[in-house]
Amino acid sequence: MAFRKQLFDNNRRWAARMKQADPEFFAKLVKQQAPDFLWIGCSDSRVPANEIVGLMPGELFVHRNVANVVIHTDLNCLSVLQYAVEVLGVEHIMVCGHYGCGGVATAMENKELGLIDNWLRTIKDVYHQNRAIIEEIDDKEQRLNLLCELNVAQQVANVTHTTIVQNAWKRGRALSVHGFIYDIHDGLLRDLGFSITGPDQIGEIYRIDA
Fold this sequence. Notes:
Helix content: 40-55%
Structural class: alpha/beta
Radius of gyration: 19 Å
Strand order of the largest sheet: 2-1-3-4-5
Distance between the termini: 58 Å
Oligomer: single chain
C-alpha cells in the first residue's frame, strides 16, 4: 500500500538525518533511557510532545490520551507514572492540554457518542464545579479554552493525589508537577502559572500521612 511505503521512506530519511547529524546517535540511544521529564498530554495528532519542547528521543517520557486526563483507575496512566517516577527518576511531570481540544469540547455537550462519554465524565465534573465562571463568558471558544485550562489544573491535582507522587515526596525526592497549555494557532506553549512540589500545596484530605 502507498501509505506504508511513504511511512517507511519517511523513517529511513529521518534515521539518515539523525546519523548524519550525530553518527553515534543511535548507539548512545540504545545504551540508556534517562529522561528528566514525564509529559502527560492529549492524543491529538497536532500536538507532538517532543517537537513542541524541542527535545530529542530519550529526553522526554510520554503518556498521551484523549483530553490529557489522569483518572485514578486508569492502570495505563498510573503504570507510566510509576515507571517514570520510580524507575526513570524523572524530576518534572508536565500535564499539557491544548486550546480547542476536541475531547474537552465534547465534554461540554450532551450528545451520546459511546464509550468515550465515560472517559470524558471527569471533564464534565470540572465543568460542573466551575459552571458559574465558565457560563459568565459569552464567547463559545473562550468558554472552551477556559475549560481546557481548568482541566489541566484538575489533572495536575490528580497526579499529586496519587500514592506514587506522594511516596516519592516522602522519600525526599525533588519532584515537581506543572500545568502547561499549547496553542495550535501559534505553536506556543504557555505556562499556566502553577507548580506543585510537595504535599503542603494540596488539600489536606488528599495527603498521605508520613
